[in-house]
């Protein structure tokens, strides 16, 4: 849209004289279907369009004022340094004024402008979205969710009836694209998955409500709404205009990030982020509903892209590209719903033997879920993961409780189709025998990866360990021993020398 076709207010907001502070010329105007954003250099100003799309209603000045205030409130949770104020705009004659005298004729959200190069999408494109940065993001988002509000009203949005409304609507709105970017088989099978899940897993969704996992989340936390600026991660542009999009399961939120990375063919990075997030929250049970939300986020991306195909004003080359993009997201949404064969992998070995390093690598290779006994133990005790545990954390009773929880999680998730890696010492034969028996009872494949290294290597590794949730130290090694593996355990065991190149060994173990 040329400047001449812009509303008078927006035209004036592209002029430097409109602002009471220096600007960087020319002022750039970015337009979306619901707002105008003016970039002035140090600050950005967002003006909401007087639109009513049903799911979004900015049709009156009072509603725009309300949702500007909501945008400020909600985004200060994850990006307080970016969201500064809601400013009234007044009018004298044909001139508009920012914060002038008189009644407001419009409102604008004032934000601190940051470089587009700091967006996580840009970092990814430059190859700078590292493992450590994704682990940091996992901690930021876990903390964001821990502090997010919840109450009876918010939790009510976690019922099957409320969740499926938007999902079923997605299917209905995309039936017209079958034979184009969507296929009948994919639509039918994706819908059959969600119908079956909602019909058979009512107790699971009730459990999500009862355990307070339905919260006032971000609602749109994909990679383009995350920035690394001034050495901090910011979560911005959350959903302020629609409660059902924001009052959601925390798995709904993280599904955006995982899906974004999967769509970019970096499942190793999405796996790393997922494992880091789940370890922080202790919400391993949430993995049972994660495929639903992964499919939902991908399907919405496909749907919105498909809408371009119905717009006569969109050029044909753009439509061709949109069709290919939509097809990719429809297929990804379908893939998330396809049944997988789960399995159980037990790590075994003394402290410092390389179990966690090996498990982490294996998880990224296999798309597995790594569950560390150190994390399970501290979640059971209700202490932060980075807090050193007292002697009470390591009693025989607490150890048994930890391994019971590990195995319960492993069986639950493996029967749902996950490859689950139980990362613990498994130094006692009864602990291993219990896992073998449960895997057999549930017809799950089982492997035991026994990590070994010479004692001096174990000692050196433990002495150099830092910033880790494990409390194991080198002085504990003399007290540790491995029970001999029995004849009935031998068929499950692969021994790994972690002082050697693990790739060939892991290739064999993953075979």
Automatic annotation (TrEMBL):
Entry keywords, A to Z: ATP-binding, Kinase, Nucleotide-binding, Transferase
A GO molecular function held by the record: ATP binding
Family annotation (InterPro entries): Cell-binding_unc_protein (IPR052732), Kinase-like_dom_sf (IPR011009), P-loop_NTPase (IPR027417), Therm_gnt_kin (IPR006001)
Keyword Nucleotide-binding in record: yes
Pathway entry: Carbohydrate acid metabolism
Recorded family membership: Belongs to the gluconokinase GntK/GntV family.
UniProt-recorded name of the protein: gluconokinase
